[in-house]
Amino acid sequence: MPDPLFPTIVAGAAKEALRFGDHALSYDALAAVAGGLARELPPGRVAVWATPTVHTSVAVVAALLAGVPAVPLNPKIGERELAHILADSEPALVLAEPGAELPAGLAALPRRDIPLTGEGAPIPPEADPESPALIVYTSGTTGPPKGVVLPRRALATTLDALEDAWAWTAADVLVHALPLFHVHGLILGILGPLRRGGSVRHLGRFSTEGVARELDAGATMLFGVPTMYHRIAGEVGSDPALADALKRARLLVSGSAALPVHDHQRITAATGQQVVERYGMTETLMNTSVRADGERKPGTVGVPLRGVDLRLVGDAGEVIDDVETVGEIQVRGPNMFTGYLNRPDATAAAFDDGWFRTGDMATRDADGYVQIVGRKATDLIKSGGYKIGAGEIENALLEHPRVAEAAVTGEPDDDLGERIVAWIVPAGPPPSETELADHVARLLAPHKRPRVVRFLDALPRNDMGKVMKRALGA
């Protein structure tokens, strides 16, 4: 029989597993309620209305114990996207928090409210490692969202590789406030602690006060996205209580998008802590990370995780072996998805002789650390014969004292091919276009200076804090 995905749930323990505000469940209580729910689930797939609650965690654990693939649904989903996901995945029912108001698009689907108490039932036998665990839908930036089929093997592999990279143990207590319909918040942030036999405290809604409170109360790890760490960086220098709480953390981890170097520096200056960045995708789960016992290099996402093969490939398909040359990241390993649901064509197109094409562009330094320069489609700018990554220009812009947020894109230019456009949320009086161009040219190189500057009140972001650059272009 395969090893259990959650050994501590199967073995039982009195220690706290999950806490969401006033709702807390021990491992014994989680085994009772999720095990009981698992026995009731029908074959096929189940949708989970993934509110940031303990109910969502129970539902997903129950589905995994039952060996039934779960389809997490974003509670803010639009009606067209919901209709597509339901037609594509054909779930047998929807699991939802009691009292949660569901959209009309789910009216035809049987509903089962998620309990928080149960008499307990024998936990079903462990499912095959290659069987589907979760079907997580992509953001759909280039068409309708695709259902990424993640096998149990991928979940176990990626979480165990992070155990190795982060020295993650049952003694760790994780705090975060990430949404539970995506890889970062659900797989890493909920299933990660449960696989280790540790604990997770979810804030429900992010606040620096909540982070400080939980770190003061014994939490050892913090997961966040750059928008959260940007808030922390802006407050920590003037908030001694927040700084002291962060100093107590064993590990601060940022993911889902690049954390600006300026924010790294502000947090380190106030706390002595260096934030660890990692890199993954829905299709691949985690690929690289800065190791807990390794050198911290702000602006990089570290080295490949145990079991992950990673290469950089040029425009002509050549494998890049030298340092500092930009290429597309391609990966392979046991952390991979099995395919896109009902899309064999898209699955085949995503691979190059067994290597998954990530669409992310990066360089590698002499120590093997990967530095992502951006997405191939939106963040690699070809200007005046140069390949320029948007990320380094964004980091340079953020060093200007009157720049609060920055995004960089390219747009067509008759002479240059593409010209660099900076989208700026100013901090105070907006700096002039010339001032910003000279600032970047001084820090980087003249050909990397923005040719156009556009000021905004806020950058458009998705639920994970990523800037939606296609919206900027539109």
Automatic annotation (TrEMBL):
UniProt GO MF annotations: medium-chain fatty acid-CoA ligase activity
InterPro entries registered for this protein in UniProt: AMP-bd_C, AMP-bd_C_sf, AMP-binding_CS, AMP-dep_synth/lig_dom, ANL_N_sf
GO biological process annotation, one example: fatty acid metabolic process
Gene3D superfamilies recorded: 3.30.300.30, N-terminal domain of ligase-like
Family matches, as Pfam families: AMP-binding, AMP-binding_C
Matches recorded under PROSITE patterns: AMP_BINDING (PS00455)
Domain named AMP-dependent synthetase/ligase: residues: 15-341
CDD domains cross-referenced by the UniProt entry: MCS
SUPFAM superfamilies assigned: Acetyl-CoA synthetase-like
Domain AMP-binding enzyme C-terminal positions: 392-466
Name of the protein described by the UniProt record: Acyl-CoA synthetase
Originating species: Amycolatopsis vancoresmycina DSM 44592
